[in-house]
Structure to design on (159 residues):
């Protein structure tokens, strides 16, 4: 069955040209994970906006790259049972900083952030482990994340 992705921009931000390619990537990632009848929303925002979310919901007063908010509600539409996984917020300000830090292009980093948020919506957590240059992850979530990224390495969002 199909999955749904709703994409929005923070008020006042212009949509980047590549925004139209995000849904295709997310559908492929969700298919790879065997998700069916799942619904997520994505918000692209600034560091200031994501910092407010981080402060309000995690009591951390600093910006971050990606936040996920599980929903876990369901509804029926035209005989189909849909599951609302939740919301993902990604800072467009942090995207190029992360790409430079990880020595990646922005396309690869965006794919990592999208997948990272998606795995969090599925209830996965990486605890204190984070992706570090030259260090292979050992925890289930980050190992799965890196495996999927490798399998979807030829997908392009930012051209």
């Amino acid at each position: 069955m199909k999955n749904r992705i709703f994409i929005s921009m923070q008020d006042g931000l212009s949509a980047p040209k590549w925004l139209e390619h995000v849904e295709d990537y997310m559908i492929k990632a969700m298919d790879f994970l065997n998700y069916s009848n799942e619904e997520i929303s994505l918000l692209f925002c600034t560091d200031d906006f994501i910092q407010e979310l981080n402060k309000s919901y995690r009591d951390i007063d600093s910006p971050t790259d990606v936040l996920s908010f599980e929903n876990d509600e369901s509804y029926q539409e035209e005989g189909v049972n849909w599951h609302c996984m939740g919301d993902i917020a990604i800072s467009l300000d942090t995207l190029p900083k992360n790409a430079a830090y990880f020595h990646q292009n922005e396309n690869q980093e965006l794919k990592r952030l999208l997948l990272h948020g998606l795995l969090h919506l599925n209830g996965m957590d990486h605890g204190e482990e984070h992706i570090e240059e030259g260090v292979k992850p050992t925890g289930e979530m980050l190992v799965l994340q890196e495996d999927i990224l490798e399998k979807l390495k030829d997908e392009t969002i930012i051209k």
Notes: The beta strands are 4-9, 38-45, 66-77, 80-91. The helical segments are 22-32, 47-58, 94-101, 106-121, 140-151.
